[in-house]
Structure formats: structure tokens, C-alpha cells
């Protein structure tokens, strides 16, 4: 009887480990986010924010904004526009505000 309980525990542990491995592998094979870089550029450009640069990491689901704008409200506007153009992405705002630099 002791052998049967040990055998059941082994099978149960094996099933749990297999499920965990399949879960991890399955998460890594998810399709990347859609390509939204051009849409973000177009939306920024149509709002006179063409000086903002856009980089996209589809696997991570991030879009990073860089560049220089003349006012803080333009920085906020650029982030809001990017969020609207690419709602599935996390927007990372690295835009600098420099009234003299634009």
C-alpha cells in the first residue's frame, strides 16, 4: 500500500511540474503586440509634435517617446496622443521640456 501512495504522489508531482513548464513556455510564445509605431508618428505629426521620436518594443509592449518640446503641456499632450494611437502599449515618456531648445 505504501508503494501505491508513493506512486500517486510521484504522478501528481510530475503533472504539476509539467503544467508549470507548459505555462511558462506558452507565455513566451505569445504573439507580439501589433505594429503601431507609424500610427503614433502620424498622430503626433498631425498635432504639430513631429519633433517627438517614437521607438517601439513589440515583444515588451512598450512605446518610448523621446525628444524636446517647448512646454510641459505639449509633453503631456504627446503622451496622451500616443496612448490613444496605441492603446495596447505602455507609453514611456522620456520627452524633455526646454522652451529654448525647440
Overview of the structural elements:
The protein has helices at residues 2-28, 37-45, 72-85, and strands at 53-57, 62-69, 90-97. It is rod-shaped and about 80 Å long. The protein has a three-stranded mixed β-sheet, with helices on one face. The chain starts with a helix and ends in a 5-residue tail after the last strand. It has two domains: 1-30; 37-97, 2-Layer Sandwich (Histidine-containing Protein, Chain: A), CATH 3.30.1340.30. By secondary structure, it is of the alpha+beta class. The chain has three helices and three strands. Helix content is 49%, strand content 21%.
Distance between the termini: 81 Å
CATH topology of the largest domain, which one? Histidine-containing Protein, Chain: A
Which stretches are low in confidence, meaning pLDDT under 50 for 5 or more residues running? none
Largest sheet: 3 strands, mixed
How many individual β-strands?
3
Question: Order of strands side by side in the largest beta sheet?
Answer: 1-2-3
Estimated radius of gyration: 24 Å
Give the total of domains.
2
* Overall pLDDT metric: 86
Pattern of helices and strands: HHEEHE
List the total number of helices. 3
CATH class of the largest domain: Alpha Beta
Topology:
Elements: H1 2-28, H2 37-45, E1 53-57, E2 62-69, H3 72-85, E3 90-97
Parallel strand pairs: 2-3
Antiparallel strand pairs: 1-2
Helix pairs in contact: 2-3
Amino acid at each position: 500500500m505504501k508503494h501505491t501512495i508513493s506512486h500517486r504522489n510521484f504522478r501528481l508531482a510530475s503533472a504539476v511540474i509539467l503544467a508549470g513548464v507548459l505555462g511558462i513556455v506558452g507565455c513566451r510564445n505569445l504573439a507580439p503586440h501589433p505594429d503601431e509605431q507609424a500610427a503614433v508618428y502620424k498622430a503626433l505629426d498631425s498635432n504639430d509634435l513631429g519633433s517627438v521620436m517614437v521607438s517601439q518594443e513589440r515583444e515588451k509592449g512598450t512605446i518610448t517617446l523621446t525628444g524636446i518640446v517647448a512646454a510641459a503641456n505639449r509633453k503631456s499632450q504627446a503622451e496622451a496622443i500616443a496612448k490613444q494611437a496605441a492603446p495596447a502599449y505602455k507609453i514611456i515618456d522620456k520627452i524633455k521640456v526646454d522652451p529654448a531648445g525647440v
